[in-house]
Amino acid sequence: MGQQIRDRDDSIDTLNSFLRGELSAVETYRQALDKVDDPGARFDLETCMRSHQQRVDTIRDRILELGGEPAFDSGPWGVFAKLIEGSAKALGVKAAVSALEEGEDHGLNDYRDDMDKLDADSKRLVEEYILPEQERTHRTMSTLKHAI
C-alpha cells in the first residue's frame, strides 16, 4: 500500500511539473500573439496555443483522477514567458518564434526524460497523446522559425 501511494504521489508531482510547463506555454503563446501581425504566423501560433491549452486540461483531469491538486499557475516557468514577452518587444517576431521553439524543445525533453516517473496509465497518456502533440507543436515552431 505504501509503495502505491508513493508511486501515485510521484505521478502527481511529475504531472504537475508538466502542467506548469504547459501553463507557461499557453501564457507565452498568448503574449507572442500580441506581437505578430502576419496571418500565417498567427494561425500557427494560435494552433499551438490551443494544443497546449488542451494539454493543460488533459493533465489537470489526470491529476484530479489520481486525487491530486493541480497547479494553477506556471510557477518558475512563468519567468520564461516573461522572457518571450520582452524579446518580442525588443527583438521582434523572429526572436519570439526562436524562443518559442526553444521552449517547445525544452518541453519535449521534459516529457521524454520524466515520463518514466509516471504510473502506467499516466505514462500511456503521455506516450499516446501528450508527447505526439508536443512533437507536432515543436515541428510547427521549427518550420515557422525557418520560414521567417
Strand content: under 5%
How are helices and strands ordered from N to C?
HHHHH
What number of domains? 1
Kindly report the name of the CATH homologous superfamily.
Ferritin, core subunit, four-helix bundle
CATH secondary-structure class: Mainly Alpha
Distance between the termini: 55 Å
From the helix content, strand content and strand pairing, which structural class follows?
mainly alpha
Please outline the major beta sheet. Answer: none
Number of strands: 0
Radius of gyration: 16 Å
User: What is the mean predicted local confidence, pLDDT?
Assistant: 88
The geometry reads as elongated
Number of helices: 5
Q: Tell me which CATH architecture applies here.
A: Up-down Bundle
Helix-residue proportion: over 70%
- Given as residue ranges, the uncertain stretches (5+ residues, pLDDT < 50) are none
The CATH topology, please? Ferritin
Structure description:
It is a single chain. With 148 residues, the chain is mainly α. The chain has a single domain, classed as Ferritin, CATH 1.20.1260. The chain contains 5 helices and no strands.
At a glance:
The protein has 148 residues and is mostly helical.
Descriptive terms for the model:
148 residues, mainly alpha, Ferritin, 0% strand, elongated
SSE layout and pairings?
Blueprint: H1 2-33, H2 39-65, H3 77-91, H4 93-114, H5 120-147
Helix pairs in contact: 1-2, 1-3, 1-4, 2-5, 3-4, 4-5
